[in-house]
Amino acid sequence: MNIGTAIISLLVWLLITFNSHGSEHKIVAQTILAEARGDGRAGMYAVAACIKVRAQKRNLSFKQVCLQPYQFSCWNKNDPNRSKMDLLLTLPQAEYAWQLARNMDKVNTEAINQATHYMTVKLWKTGRVKWARGQKPVAFWGSHAFFKLK
């Protein structure tokens, strides 16, 4: 391999790596914003922690966890946030969401007691969500109750 080919290969690799991480961070930041932008930094941190717990337990990337069907409602086709995902990145809270997305390895999942799921407290109190029936929250952050499912 000559030097020109080596340089081109390196540049292609860097471009692919940067784009995949950029895309990963963007999806995570958008998920955090869509799910908890009104819950302040603590609520946004808690959602980031839940993303991390799921990724670790499922051996998936953070992006894969966020985009799994019916896991984070903001990505569901019928969710009103779905069409606003790029717009969310212009909100004042976006800077913190990006910070969390770029530093997921440092997010402490003990903040939510290793919770794997969450929903709004209001929805939980209705008893309408089957998986949450009979479950006791392990943490409360912002407007969300967090649950540790098996």
Question: Briefly, what is this?
Answer:
The chain has helices at 3-36, 40-58, 62-67, 85-88, 94-102, 121-126, and strands at residues 117-120, 139-141, 144-147. By secondary structure, the chain is mostly helical.
Q: Outline, from the CA principal axes?
A: globular
Order of H and E elements: HHHHHEHEE
Biggest sheet, strands in spatial order?
1-3-2
Please count the helical segments.
6
Q: Would you count the extended β strands for me?
A: 3
What structural category characterises the helix and strand content?
mainly alpha
Please compute the radius of gyration using only Cα atoms.
Answer: 17 Å
Q: Please report the distance between the alpha carbons of the first and last residues.
A: 51 Å
Helix content: 40-55%
Low-pLDDT residue intervals, each spanning 5 or more residues: 10-21
Care to describe what's here?
With about 150 residues, the chain is mainly α. It is about 50% helix and about 5% strand. The chain is built from 6 helices and 3 strands; from the N terminus they run αααααβαββ. A 3-stranded antiparallel sheet has the order 1-3-2. α1 packs across α2. It is globular and about 65 Å long. The protein starts with a helix and ends with a strand. The model is unreliable at about 10-20 (pLDDT under 50).
